[in-house]
Each structure stands twice: as structure tokens, then as C-alpha cells.
């Protein structure tokens, strides 16, 4: 019962946050200076033509009406039509989401593949050269902005060596080989920064575990350090790592926006930037809401995963110790 | 993290890496013959929609004019009218009725002949659409009728030279009137190429139209790839991903392509006048002496050398050298700061003058603004610079004329006529210019040239603006590409004539 209540409480927070976000996003877009009709009609528009177009687009209606119209549409899955291209917003977002999701997914996976063994190494060999070296390297990785890493990778692997394409995107179904080739450099640039963050968290989480009583007990009954770590330590360390993972997943979407720009990948970030620049506010609002939704889902999932990972939380109404 | 799911993730990443390792770079992907048949062009602005009647964005005709959509006639490289969909045309003695005879062999991709009805339908479509420029260019048409399948009769409300010229551009595009598709995503024209696919945010791919009635297209496939970031475009070129950079946006970067065994750099002119507009209605700038002082105070040659790597032509008025009424007026106000100070003093600004410069955030404008401000500062004009995003610039400067100085590249061909409109954001109000422009449009060709020359001279003399420089047409190609024209005289990136060895 208490688990059920915890879940309900979490979902309520989720819904309220989403509703508040929609008001905020709409208000910010409404406050942006610049008129979409003027952008569409360009530098030779007459006032009559502008007024007519505003009426056709519905941008001359009161704000409250436009907000309700927009939210109502979204609840039924209709994100409206782009002002500029007249194409459905939902379809455009879905198309771009496919690109960004690959980037974030592979970026996270690669970062974890690098960070888990290195983080464990840095913790277990804390006082030895190899551990210190890993810690130092992760500091360097943290200091490097993802876009700079991306540019350097392009200069080396695309321009100098010619091994991989410098930028662009080929859809998976069109040519799987080219699809993968175009994703390698952007994914690696994202993963460099991500893994550096994760190494540090994993290291400190495991260091905590190493000093726990149960760990010492396991060692005392004759288990090796590795066995004790894998059987008891990882599960406990994972609790704090999952929190960080959730946070990092959200920042990865932001990082992806920058990386998409460097590698001209047609993802959500590029869509968003172009839409803001062109005052295609329906598209901006829809894209931002999807991003907000994703981040809120991740946060909720992190919170709910505590329940799964830590049995103690299930017994006292979802409150942590 | 459960170990089992971790294992699955490991497998996924290993698979991705292996997949990538098996792939060779795109340049060596296809055979020699295949590569010669394909062209990849790098460009900066992606069309917002593919429907030319819905927007006057120059990025639409860049890809589609002449390549996918054809016009009745075309401006050839000498600036003369040449036949395209119209085999020949006749102009009535009062120069108000045009009779076009269409090419008998011209067909749409499905084999249906291009008829006069298609041409009439297309004109009506433009007149209903949101492309304001095309709409106003067609406003002079009183009636357009299909006399028979191959004869089109157009009657104008008054004689107009610019009408025929405009019909060779976007406003003259002929759509397939029987097309059932949505023109915003699926263009339907009679040109040598047809749309293959549009990956939004990334590229537009054209394929050869095998049913084309004229000379077959050179390439089986042409890709226009879009780059928001010029650096990304350059690295793509350097790594073999592009055959052509259609317009270099940062001339400083041109040195990266100095290896003549690999790259060819083409430098010509465009129709883009980088105008430092002076608000002719703002208090100080109403005074011709102040406008002249500003023109004397700026060393345009040094400006081009400093901010645009020396690329660009000095013009001195609103006319590019490829227009028939071009004259070199770049020396009307040679650099002379002493004279500038003198003029300012005479106008009553000996104690200094404050001006607001509001520029859009585009590279040529922001870097020119800094240079201009420092030179004006030298003669006692204090310039405060404000950078505006383009939609805000449109609203504040363009619509409301709330500015003293601004810098914008005016890319439309023959846009000098905008000085005849006092409500345009320059707020330049000169009845003589308005009259001359109208007369030039209605007169014979010789009269048109003489009167437009006069207009250009008046504007220069009057210091209606400071024409900083003519935007250069900077194109980089690999040495394999031939036939790219030096000067950009139309809005089209015309693929006819371009080949690859």
C-alpha cells in the first residue's frame, strides 16, 4: 500500500510540473519579440497582408484562447502545425527525436562502458598510480567542452585522416553503415565529457562501499575484493549512481543540442534552434514541451527506481532514511 | 545497473563500433562512374518550405529555379532574355500585350505537355500566395489567358520592363496544374531535375528527370546539404564530403582552400548590396550634409580588407556591375575625414553627434558595425551599437524604422527600385526618384537604362545610404568540378553547365 501511495504521489508531482511547464513555455514564447507573419512575408510585406496572415495563423487571438487551444490539442496528441512550413509539429518532432535519441542513447552507453571499469579501478586502486591517473584524466575530460572535443575529433579523424565523415546524418534504414559512421564522432564527443563526470561519481560511490561494515564482513569470510564488490557493493553503489545517471541523462539532451550543431545532425536541438530563430513558436513550444516531458520522466523514473533498488524505502511510505 | 542489462548494452555498443569500422568514408563509397554522376553542394540556409508561392526566402529559388521549375524565359549570362518554356514571344506595339508560344516538346515528368493553362494557373497561384515579392511583381498583370494549348496571352495594366525580367525569376515558375501532391513538400515542375527526397534540417536531394524535354541533366543525383555553422561546412569540404561550397560565409576561412591541386576558389559578384542604411527621417540624418559626412568618414576599401578579407566590390550606389545600368560610382565620396568633420560642423554638430546603430546578428553586419563605429568616432560621431536577432530586427528596424543606422545585405536583383517607395524602412522620400523609376519601367529599353543610371547617380549624390560593398560570390569547388559561373546574377544555383570529371 505504501509503495502504491509513493507511486501516486510521484505521478501527481509529475503532472503538476508538466502543467506548470506548459504555462511557462507558452508565456516565454509569447513574450519573445518578433512577429511570425513578418518573418514569413519578409521584407516586402504590406500591413494588410500582415494582418490577413496573422488572422489566418490565429496569432491575433487573445493569449488565453491560444494557450487553451494549444494545450487542448497536445492532450489529444495534436501539437499543431508549424507556422512556417505548415507541416504537423508532432511528425517533425518525432522525426528529429529519432536522431537525438540515438545520440543520447549511444552517448550514455559508451560513457558507462568507459566509466564503470575506470571508476571501479580508480576506487580500488585509490592510492596507487593507476587510480590517481584515472582521477586526473577524468578532471581533464571534465574541463573539455563537448563542442571543442567534437571539433578536435573532426580535425583529426575527418579532415586529417579521412576515416569518418565530418558531419551530416544518414537515416538508419537508408544505409546502416553510413548511419553508424556518421554517429561515431558525435557519440564519442558526448561520451568523453559524460564518462569523466560518471567516473568521479562511481569512484566515490564505490569508495563509500569499501568502507562499509558489510564489505569488511564479506572480506573476512574469505571473499575476494572483486567478488565482494560485485555481489554486495555494486547494488549499494548503484543507488547514488542512478541519481547521477538520471541527472546526467537530462544534461545529455542539452549536450546533444550543442553537438548536433557541431556535426549538423538533424536532431531536436537543431530543430529547436532553427525554430526559435524563425519565430516558429508552435514548433518551439512543442519541442520544448517534449524535452520537458522527457526530463520529467527521467526524474520520476529515478525516484521510482529507488523503490526498486532499496528495499528499506518500500517499508516506510517511500521516505528515505 | 543490473549486470544482465549491462551486458546487453555492451553488445549494442560493440555492434555499433564494428558497423562503423566496416564502413569506408563516403568519398570512396561508390565507383568512379557513380561519383562523377553525383554532386554534393554545401549551402547555408535551408528552405522553410518547398513551395515558391508561400515564401520569398531566397533559399527556395536557389535549389528549384531552373533546376526543377522552369520559367517562360530565362536571363542568360549576358543579361539578355532567352527562350525557355516559351519558344518565342511577341510584344504588342503599345507594349502591354505579350503573346508567348510555348515549346511543343516541353513536358512534365509524367509526360503530360506543358500548356498555356499551366502558366495561367501558376500566375494565379502566385497572386494568391504568401510570397509578397512575387505577388507584387505580378500585380501589373491585367489578364492572363490561354488562347490555345500552346499560346499564352498576357495583358498588362501598363507597360513594364521589370515585369518580363521578373517572369524569368521566381514569379515566372510554371507549376504542374494537374499535380495532386502538396507543393510545400513535393514540387512539380518541368525542369531537368525532380525532387528525390527532403531530409529536413539536413539535405535536399534532386534526381535526374528522365522525361526532360531539353538537354539531359548531367548528374543522376544532386544533393544540397545545409550547414548552420560555416566551420562545419568547411570541414565537410576538407574531408571530401562536398564538391562545392555554394557561398562562402566567412571569407577569412578561404585560406584553408589555398591548395590549388585540390580546390578551385571562384570569386565573382552577386546582386547583394551590403547597405549601411541611414534613416532619412531621423533628426540628424534628414540633413544631407550629415549623410555626406558619414560617407566621407568611412574608408570602405579598408573596411572590406579588414572585415571581409579583401573580398567584395566597391559600388557607391545600389547597382551591381552585372546590371545594364551600372556605372562605377564608388568614388563619389572618397575617404576624407577632414571633410567629414567640416560638413558636420556646417550642419551644426561641431560639438558631436550621437547615433544609434541597430544591426542584425549576421557576420558581415556585426563585424562591419564595429569598423564603421570606430571610423565615425574619429570624426566626432558617437555610435552606440545594438545587435538584434533577425526577427527582432524585422520588427524594430524594418517595420518600425526605429533606428539611425543599420547594415543589411540586400540580395534581390534590381532592388534599387525600393528607393522609389518612401514607406520603405530607409524612409527615403524623393519624388524625382519615384518618378524616374516609374518612367524607366514603362519606357523603352534604352530609356530604362538611361533613367536608371540617373536614379543611381541621384542616390549616390544625395548620400541616401552608404553602400559599404557588394557581397562577393565566393565559391569553392574541388578541382574535379567545372562550369560553375563566376557571377551570381540570378537567385538560382543553376546546375546546367556544371560537370565533374
TrEMBL record, chain A:
Hydrolase recorded as keyword: no
UniProt keyword Transmembrane present: yes
Positions of transmembrane segments: 101-124, 136-159, 179-202, 237-263, 283-309
Membrane topology designation: Multi-pass membrane protein
This protein's UniProt keywords: Cell membrane, Membrane, Transmembrane, Transmembrane helix, Transport
Pfam families: BPD_transp_1 (PF00528), BPD_transp_1_N (PF19300)
Domain ABC transmembrane type-1: 97-302
Compartment(s): Cell membrane
Organism superkingdom: Bacteria
Family (UniProt): Belongs to the binding-protein-dependent transport system permease family.
Name of this protein: Peptide/nickel transport system permease protein
Organism: Microlunatus panaciterrae
TrEMBL record, chain B:
Gene3D superfamilies linked to this entry: Dipeptide-binding Protein, Domain 1 (3.90.76.10), Dipeptide-binding Protein, Domain 3 (3.10.105.10), Periplasmic binding protein-like II (3.40.190.10)
Keywords: Signal
Residue span, Solute-binding protein family domain: 81-410
Organism for this UniProt entry: Microlunatus panaciterrae
PANTHER family according to UniProt: D,D-DIPEPTIDE-BINDING PERIPLASMIC PROTEIN DDPA-RELATED (PTHR30290:SF38), PERIPLASMIC BINDING COMPONENT OF ABC TRANSPORTER (PTHR30290)
Signal peptide, first to last residue: 1-20
Protein name: Peptide/nickel transport system substrate-binding protein
Protein's UniProt keywords contain Ribonucleoprotein: no
